[in-house]
Each structure stands twice: as structure tokens, then as C-alpha cells.
Amino acid sequence: MSEETPGFEEKPDVPADGTPEETEAAESAAKAEGAAPAGDATDVALLAQLDQARTALNERTGDLQRLQAEYQNYRRRVERDRVTVKEIAVAGLLSELLPVLDDIGRAREHGELVGGFKSVAESLETVAAKMGLQQFGKEGEPFDPTIHEALMHSYAPDVTETTCVAILQPGYRIGDRTIRPARVAVAEPQPGAQGKAEESDDSEKDSE
């Protein structure tokens, strides 16, 4: 007959390698260690995706910048073409009015620009000037074949270069665009006059 020791109770066996809490902590640590390689692979994949996103963003940014530059160039071309078309249209209209302006100029020269006709003529000239029409061509200015059309030619002793001596029809321009050259009579120095002038100058120098 066995004797039981009073005051002691039997306890369940505990694994030799530690308490249940320690065992559970060890298993969690083992799981974490086993999951570490998978976490590294995920980070690599995320970095690769980030690089791809950055590359795509740079490409899209470049495309947007090129598109903006093309749009700005397009706007400038449209504005330039619009101005050119407007100038051509205005020049065409004013070209049709030049004969009327010539008649007004001749009437003014002959003292016939009077009364209501004078008021209408001046109003027409004012409107033409507002549209950019400018008259040019004056007696005594050097002949320029780009803006003058010589209709008469002569020689004169008092000119040292080809000179406009009479304005037969004034020229007209809009900005830098010439819509009609000035029609003029020109005079050139008389043949030999330049040589005589040079000889005279030399003689005066020698006498001094």
C-alpha cells in the first residue's frame, strides 16, 4: 500500500526544452525567419516596378514637353499667317483705291479740291492712312530701283548721282510692303562732269 505525500499534487509534464510560452515564441521567430526571404523578393519586385514607373513618367513628361513646343509653334504659325492674310487683303483693297487717290492728288495740285468733294477726299485719305497706307516719293531723293520706277531719264550738271527730279506718281506702301513704286523722272550726272569736278578740286589743292 502506497503512501501519498500530503500537500502535493501531480502536475502535467512540461517539455524539456522550455515552457509553452517559450515554445510559442520560438515557433513565431522561426516563422518570421522563414518569411524573410519572401519579403526581400517582394522589395525587389517593388523597386523594379518603381523604376518602370519612373521611366514611363519621364517618357510621358518628354512627350508632353514636345507636344507643348509643337503647340506653341503651331500658334505662332497661325498668328503669323493670320497677320499675313490680313495684310494681303488690306493691300488688295487699297490697291484698288490708288487711282482714286491719284485723282484726289491731281485735283489738289490744280486747286480743284473744294467744297464737299474736299471733305470726302480728306475722309478717304484719313481712312486709308488708318489702314496703314503710306505715301512716299520726293523730288531730290536718290533713285532707288527697289522703290522707284523711272519713266523718264535725263542728264543734269547739278547732280552727283542718279536723282529723282520729278515725281510723276507717288508710291505707296503698307509697313514694309510696297504696293506701288513711285514713278519718277530721273537725272544722272552729265558724262565727264565728275571728272571735271575732280580736276577742279585737284587744281584748287595745287594752288594752295
Automatic annotation (TrEMBL):
A Pfam family reported for this protein in Swiss-Prot or TrEMBL: GrpE
Keywords: Chaperone, Coiled coil, Cytoplasm, Stress response
Source superkingdom: Bacteria
Region ranges (Disordered): 1-38, 183-208
Start-end of Acidic residues biased regions: 199-208
Keyword Chaperone: yes
Assembly with partners or alone: Homodimer.
Family: Belongs to the GrpE family.
Protein name: Protein GrpE
Gene name tied to this protein: grpE
